[in-house]
C-alpha cells in the first residue's frame, strides 16, 4: 500500500510540475494573443487584464490594410517553402552519397559541412552581401533562398547522413537482387524508411527561413520583397511602438510554425533521435 501511495504521489508531482512548466512556457504566447485582441485604451490601462473586456479585431484589420502584411506573408511563404524543398532535395542525395559511397575527398566534404556551422552569421554577413551584389542576387527572392540554403543544407546533410548510416545496407542489397536500380532503391526503399528524419529536417529548414531576420534585412531592400520578421521589426520605431499590430503580426507569424510542429511532432522526435544511434 505504501509503495502504491508513493507511486501515486510521484506521478501527481510529475504531472503538476509538467502542468506548471507548460503554463509558464505558453503564457507569453497567450498574452500576445489576448493583447492582439484588445484596443489601445485597454492595452495601456493602469490595471491590465489577461482577457480582453471588449473583443476587437482592429489590430488585424489595420495589419492587413495599413501595413500590407499579406504581401510580407506571401514573401515569407514563398521563400520558406522554396528553401525547404531545395535543402531537402540536395541534402537527401548528398547525405546518401556520403553515407553509402567511398570516394576521394569524402572526409574533406564531411569536415567542410561541420566547418560551415562554426561561423556566426554577423561575421560573414558582409561577405555574403558583397558577393550577392556582384552576382546580381541582391534584392531578390532567389538570393534570399540561396542564402538560407547555405545554412540549412549543411545541417540537413549532416543529420540525414547520420540517419542513413543507421539504415541496414542489406535492405538495399535485397532490393538490388530483386531488380531495383540505384534510383529505384532510393525512392522505394531509402526515402520511405528515412521519412521521419527527412520531415524533421524539412521542418528545421522551414523554421530557419521563416523566422530569420538578419539576412533578410541585409539582402532585401525593396518593400515589396520584405519578409514578415523584417516587417515586424519596422513596427518598432525610435519614439513609438505599434503594440497592437505588433502583437497581431507576432500571432500570425507563430501560428504556421505551431501547426506544423503539432502535426509533425512525432516525425520530429523520431527523426532527431533515430539517427543518433547506429544499429
Descriptive report:
By secondary structure, the chain is mostly helical. The protein folds into two domains: 1-56, no CATH class; 62-274, MetI-like fold (Orthogonal Bundle), CATH 1.10.3720.10. 76% of the residues lie in helices and 0% in strands. It contains 13 helices and no strands. Helix 4 (69-100) packs antiparallel against helix 10 and helix 8 (169-177) crosses helix 9. The protein is globular. The protein starts with a helix and ends in a 5-residue tail after the last helix. 28% of the residues are buried.
CATH homolog superfamily of the largest domain: MetI-like
Large-scale geometry: globular
Label the CATH architecture of the largest domain: Orthogonal Bundle
* Topology pattern, helix = H, strand = E: HHHHHHHHHHHHH
Q: What is the number of independent domains?
A: 2
Rounded average pLDDT: 85
Q: Uncertain runs with pLDDT below 50, 5 residues or more? A: 275-279
Number of helices: 13
What kind of assembly state do the chains in view correspond to? single chain
The N- to C-terminal Cα distance equals 42 Å
Task: Provide the CATH topology of the largest domain.
Answer: MetI-like fold
The helix content, as a percent range, equals over 70%
